[in-house]
Amino acid sequence: MVTRRDFIRGSGVNVAATAAVITAAVGTSAVSRVAMAALPEPVSQTSAATQGPLMPPDGRPYDPVVTLNGWTLPWRMVDGVKEFHLVAEPVVRELAPGMKAHLWGYNGQSPGPTIEVVEGDRVRIFVTNRLPEHTSVHWHGQRLPNGMDGVSGLTQPAIPAGKTFVYEFVARRPGTFMYHPHADEMTQMAMGMMGFWVTHPKRDGARTSHPLIDRVDRDFCFLLSAYDIEPGSATPKIMTMTDFNLWTWNSRVFPGIDSLNVRLGDRVRIRVGNLTMTNHPIHLHGHEFSVTGTDGGPTPVGSRWPEVTTDVAVGQMRQVEFIADEEGDWAFHCHKSHHTMNAMGHAVPTMIGVDHSGLAGRIARVVPDYMVMGERGMADMAEMTMPLPDNTLPMMTGTGPFGSLEMGGMFTTLKVRRDQKPGEYGDPGWFQHPAGTVAREWTGSLAEPVRAPATSATTTTPNASTTPTQPVTPAVELKARKPSGHAGH
Ligand SMILES: [Cu+2]
What we know:
By secondary structure, the protein is mainly beta. It is 6% helix and 30% strand. The strands form 7 sheets. Strands 3, 15, 16, 18, 20, 21 and 23 form a 7-stranded mixed β-sheet that branches. Strands 4, 5, 6, 8 and 10 form a 5-stranded mixed β-sheet that branches. The chain is globular, with a radius of gyration of 27 Å. Residues 247, 280, 334, 336, 339, 410 line the site of copper (II) ion. Copper (II) ion binds at residues 247, 280, 334, 336, 339, 410. GO terms for molecular function: copper ion binding; oxidoreductase activity. Residues 450-489 are annotated as: Disordered. Residues 96-203, 234-349 form the Plastocyanin-like domain.
């Protein structure tokens, strides 16, 4: 639900701005002269659900994006200039049902709202700072006058707490961008301050005017961010450098990340920006895509090749495109397996193969809630109902039509459906597989495996059913151990 924020109740905002803002309702016909000179009323979002595309009410036409678990910021057109109002402020963001984080963001959410404009638009962005410290906004990837680049100390003074600054420039280059502070960055980005920006190409009739940018049926976007929040607490630890425990898409973790719901045959674009402190190989099942753009712009056609995984390095953006021509529920996730898990202590020893028979019962007499973890791998963790502290999430969770998904973090699904209507983004539910197309238990007889015969006197084949011609070296037990520490997560 979009709500209009009443600035009178806000704290830390200067009185002049407050008086001006409350008279400036977007779309109000009786706008006073004072209001005309005032800021656009800030619009705030209370929901973490994916909002439908914002169809442009005025200005040049474009095909709007859908922000995963996010929304697009409405604007006000003043003398041909698109005016936006960002409010940097503390927010409460639900990471997934069962866990809320105290973050910093914009207009009620982290990440902030997506800003969508068209190539050639003159854009004026008011930024009100309701944080307890100064901030600034850097418009990552944009061509703009140096003084609008948002680097506090270098190109502008920082925006003090309680003050409003204005940025103004022409969106010269179409493409995929983001915004984030360039003031006390380590704190402010670790707290969730970031947002997406899309500059759409101009239209030339039914086509875009850019030879390297096609129109698509669905255009999704999201940012990668990471947090370190101790189970049971709500505020990220800002001093963490690499050892984060919550890997998010738009400040959501699975099962809180909405699915990407598309119609069979749709041309789909997905834009991803990385504001974490490590790279993420983003992987799609069932389809091949091409990288059609970066934060530097559209890629030349000759540079595009099919992939199913694209690595998004720190500070980079990638824009991928494909035809959704296979029906089903296709996993879509970061390929680092510890990035598809939620917060949990890392100091859990590997217990695979350790026989705990009898031991748990004896310990339970002393420690009533004692449970054994991981003697058959960690999959049991997803199904057991361990007592968790308040405000945290199971390490791996989520239930699908065939049982537990054993996932968390950067994971969701692409749902491709024959009957998904054009422009409809609702969740169609789980895929109904045609009969005989699901992997199933084999209950028939199994053929003897084919084995290489021992053909030479010098060949020793420990697996061969034939008698070896030479004595087999006794098996040596090798123990593999991962390096300790978590650098490079
Ligand atoms: Cu990752």
